[in-house]
Write a structure and sequence with these properties.
With 183 residues, this protein is of the alpha/beta class. It contains 6 helices and 7 strands, in the order ααβαβαββαβαββ. Strands 3-2-1-4-5-7-6 form a 7-stranded mixed β-sheet. Helix 4 links the parallel strand 2 and strand 3. The chain starts with 5 loop residues before the first helix and ends in a 5-residue tail after the last strand.
């Protein structure tokens, strides 16, 4: 299935004033319990999770392939008085390297799944750090049932759920996982 035209999709949402900027319950529930640090929000879209994290005191780097989305996020961050390092990069073509020598305390991967990126996500989280992820079980950028849990089976899984997301109209898998502090 071809990728949607993200520039046009985000431009339409921004122009209509209907951008959803409320962070998901998974992100809110788990990050309110954490000490803020460095966070990476991959495929951030218009930045609802980045904005939430920045308000909570996190140092956020947000990445998306859509220039429209990143520009919107930068304006929204400025309007709320926070700073977000926002980067336009195509994750599918290797436009971002997640460096292991400067790990993240938290990586958020929401409504996006790229199998080839998961090894970098796992190694890019500091020991004791977290991954919060959600992916569709149907459609594009989807996971197979049990795949998200399996990807982090050697981590401490704090939350895992596969369910029909009535609000979004599709089935979803979501996880909150903590990287072990000892290898």
């Amino acid at each position: 299935m071809p990728n949607p035209d993200w520039e046009a999709r985000h431009a339409k949402t921004v122009a209509s004033g209907s951008a959803e900027l409320t962070a998901s319950s998974l992100i809110v529930e788990f990050t309110t319990q954490l000490q803020p640090g460095r966070a990476l929000d991959l495929a951030c879209g218009l930045g609802r999770h980045s904005l939430w994290l920045a308000r909570m005191g996190w140092h956020v780097t947000a990445v998306d392939r859509s220039r429209v989305a990143i520009e919107f996020l930068q304006r929204a961050a400025a309007a709320q008085g926070t700073r977000i390092d926002a980067v336009v990069a195509d994750l599918e073509s290797g436009g971002l390297v997640i460096r292991q020598d400067h790990p993240w305390n938290l990586i958020v991967v929401y409504n996006y799944w790229q199998r080839g990126l998961m090894a970098s996500v796992r190694s890019g989280v500091s020991p004791g750090g977290f991954v919060l992820a959600s992916a569709r079980l149907t459609g594009s950028f989807r996971v197979e049932p049990g795949e998200l849990r399996s990807a982090f089976s050697d981590w401490e899984i704090l939350h895992y759920r596969e369910h029909q997301n009535a609000d979004a109209g599709h089935a979803t898998a979501q996880i909150a996982a903590r990287r072990p502090t000892i290898a």
